[in-house]
Write a structure and sequence with these properties.
It is built from one helix and no strands. With 135 residues, it is mostly helical.
């Protein structure tokens, strides 16, 4: 009977151990499924970050393209402004030249008037000198 009791204890211990191993296996399977799920989530997060980075890069490229188009229009506007400035300088020189031409006859008239007045004074002085000698 002692052998049966020992055998019974061994069987009972083996059954308990077997149940423990079965629970461990079940727990291990659950952990494995969790790990697989975690890897999937990690892969999804990485993919999401890549997509977010791509979207940011795309927005940067779009902004750069807009900026580039603006810069592309600037030379045309600059050429237009340069042409306008050149035209304005030409007009300014023409106006200065016209003002000079308009001022020239006035200046000539003034010089002519001054010359006539000096001649008249000279003649008057000359006559006065001659009369003084004659008297």
């Amino acid at each position: 009977m002692m052998k049966i009791a020992i055998l019974y204890n061994i069987l009972e211990h083996t059954a308990t151990h077997c149940n423990s191993l079965q629970r461990t296996a079940t727990h291990c399977n659950a952990l494995q499924r969790t790990a697989i799920h975690c890897n999937t989530l990690q892969h999804t997060a990485t993919h999401c970050n890549t997509l977010q980075h791509t979207a940011t890069h795309c927005n940067t490229l779009r902004h750069t393209a807009t900026h580039c188009n603006t810069f592309q229009r600037i030379p045309t506007q600059c050429n237009t402004l340069h042409h306008t400035a050149t035209h304005c300088n030409t007009l300014q020189q023409t106006i200065t030249y016209c003002n000079t031409l308009r001022h020239t006859p006035t200046h000539c008239n003034t010089l002519q008037h001054t010359a006539i007045y000096r001649n008249a004074l000279y003649c008057a002085c000359s006559r006065a000198v001659v009369r003084a000698e004659c008297v």
